[in-house]
Amino acid sequence: MTDTALRASYVAAIDRIMRQITWQSQKQLAQTLSRSDIDLTMPQMHTLFAIRSARTCRMSELAEITQQSAGTLTGIVDRLIEEHLVGRVRDIDDRRVVQVTLTPRGEEKAALVEQARREDMNRMLSPFNLEQLQQFEGLMSLLLSGLHEIFNNHAISESQHTNGAHHSQEGLAHHGGAEHRRYRVA
After folding, report:
1. Where are the beta strands (DSSP E) in 16-145?
2. Sign of the CA dihedral running 117, 118, 122, 125
3. pLDDT tens digits, one per residue of 60-70
4. For 14-54, how does the pLDDT look when each residue is reduced to its tens digit (9 = 90+)?
C-alpha cells in the first residue's frame, strides 16, 4: 500500500472514530445535564457558558456565538432568567443597550457542569496511564490546532466575501467578550 493510500485509510478510520466520539460524548453530556442537580438542556448549557466566557454581552453577540436565531435565543435566555442563572443589565452610558450576564447562581451552575464533565472525562480516560494521557493530550492539541486553522481560514474567506467583521466564540472569549464598562441590573 502506498503512503497516500495508507494515509487515506487512517484518515477514514479516524473520521469514523471522531464521529462516534462526537455522538457518544453528546449523549453522555445530555445525560449529565439531565441530572437533577444540573437540569439544563444542551442549548441552555451552551448559552450559559457563552455568557460566562463573554462576562456580559448583547443578545446579538450571543446569537452569533451560540449559532441560535434571535427568537430561539430569547426563549433560552428567558428560561435561564427564570432559574436565576442569568440577568439582564443596562449599559450606564447607553440605557438603550440591554445585555445579559451570569448571576452568582449561574456561575455555581456552570462550575457544577464543569465538575461533572471532569468526572465523566476521568471515567472515560481511566484506562490510560500517565504517559498515554500525555501523548493523547498532545495529539488532541495538534488536532485542535488543525480545526482552528480550518475555521480561521474559512472565517477569513467568509469575511472577504461579505466585507464584514467576523467574531468567533473564541475571539469573544479571548478578549473577555463585551467592552469592560459599568452596568446596572435592568
Report:
1. 56-58, 86-91, 98-102
2. positive
3. 899 999 999 99
4. 999 999 999 999 999 999 999 999 999 999 999 999 999 99
Domain ranges within the chain, ordered by starting residue: 1-33, 36-129+166-185
Q: Which residue has the cell 486553522?
A: 149
| Assigned C-alpha cell, 68 | 441560535
Residue 161: predicted pLDDT? 64
pLDDT tens string 126-148: 999 999 999 999 999 999 999 99
At residue 90, the 3 state secondary structure works out as strand
Give the pLDDT band of residue 182 (cuts 50, 70, 90): very low
Closest CA to 41 of 3, 73, 9: 73
58 vs 99: CA distance, rounded Å: 4
Q: How far apart are CA 69 and CA 59, in angstroms?
A: 10
What cell numbers appear for 50 in the block?
457563552
Exposure on the CB side of residue 38, measured as CA atoms within 13 A: 21
* Domain at 36-129+166-185, CATH class: mainly alpha
* Whole-prediction pTM: 0.73
Neighbours of 135 (CB within 10 A): 12
Do residues 91 and 179 touch, judged by C-beta distance below 8 A?
no
Which residues, in sequence order, are CB contacts of 186 under 8 Å at separation 6+?
87, 88, 89, 90, 98
